[in-house]
Amino acid sequence: MDDYKLFKALIYKKTGIDLSAYKEKQMKRRIEALAARRGFNKLADYFKGLDKDHRLYDEFLNYITINVSEFFRNPSQWDVLRKEVVPLLLGSKKNIKVWSCACSTGEEPYSLVMLLSEFLKLEEINVLATDIDEGAIEKAKTGVYRENSLKNLPLGYKDKFFSRIGSNYRISDTVRERVKFRKLNLLKDGFPTQCDLIVCRNVLIYFTEQAKQQLYQNLGDALSDGGVLFVGSTEQIVLPQKHNFIPMKVFFYKKAIKCSQS
Ligand SMILES: C[S@@+](CC[C@H](N)C(=O)[O-])C[C@H]1O[C@@H](n2cnc3c(N)ncnc32)[C@H](O)[C@@H]1O
Asked: What is the mean pLDDT of residues 154-174?
């Protein structure tokens, strides 16, 4: 077995993370670079190292999951969400079920709560936020951010929803309390059901075509009829109809409503 194949098998056994579902060239290059930086020339030795030393292990997990995020990332897409998608979803209901499914350090689900507060009372809003990376989730729960990640906040949001602590900013408890965080591996675990809005951004890019196809199917199943999937900037779905999605706006797909045959 080659070095990377063995490494993937060992990591799967240890963590349940299937590296085969991630684009191989990119992932292998990143892991080999990190291993070399820590003085390991062979991935088998690197595995032995991270199996023994939890600091190496945490570093590895952090590094492969790539947690980069920011509030209102790609702001023009959030404008579409605010002006067109949320009003449409709320048109027929009093409330909506929202899932941020690769939430990283929390900027995305907190952005959703702040945006939804333009339509609903804060106490009516509930966002489920999940990620594979427990370290990122812990940071998300703390809710403290560098100023740079706030640069796309809509006018007035910083004063309304954040307090300054030293050179950082803390999200208000009223927003923080509206998000429920939990660990979920998109390639392995069961999904919530009957979601009206799923935000799945800047994670699909890391997956192989095969993993993506399965994920589109599962995300479609997790949506309610007429529910909307919001994807990242370079993650448009090729042939959305194949997965029962209707393109709505660029980066937004609506789940087709099934007609009953009678
Ligand atoms: C670049 S961040 C995207 C954060 C946020 N969605 C955004 O667009 O700003 C990618 C996130 O995907 C998560 N991730 C990677 N593989 C995953 C998987 N199999 N299941 C769930 N989350 C995963 C990573 O831990 C990371 O937090």
From this structure: 96
Q: pLDDT tens digit string along 46-94?
A: 999 999 999 999 899 888 888 889 999 999 999 999 999 999 999 978 8
**Ligand 1 atom nearest to CA at 107:** 9
- Determine, yes or no, domain membership for 262: no
Using CB atoms within 10 Å of the CB of residue 148, give its burial: 0 to 12 exposed, 13 to 18 middle, 19+ buried: exposed
Specify whether 204 is located in the same domain as 137. yes
Q: Is 131's C-beta closer than 6 angstroms to any atom of ligand 1? A: yes
Domain boundary, last residue among 65, 94, 112:
65
Residues 93 and 22 in one domain: no
CA distance 164 to 203: 30
Q: Is the shortest distance between the CB of 133 and ligand 1 below 6 Å?
A: yes
Range of the domain at 19: 3-65
pLDDT of residue 16: 87
20 lines ligand 1 (CB under 6 A): no
Question: Which parts of the chain fold into alpha helices (H)?
Answer: 3-15, 24-37, 43-52, 54-65, 75-80, 86-91, 107-116, 134-142, 157-161, 173-176, 209-222
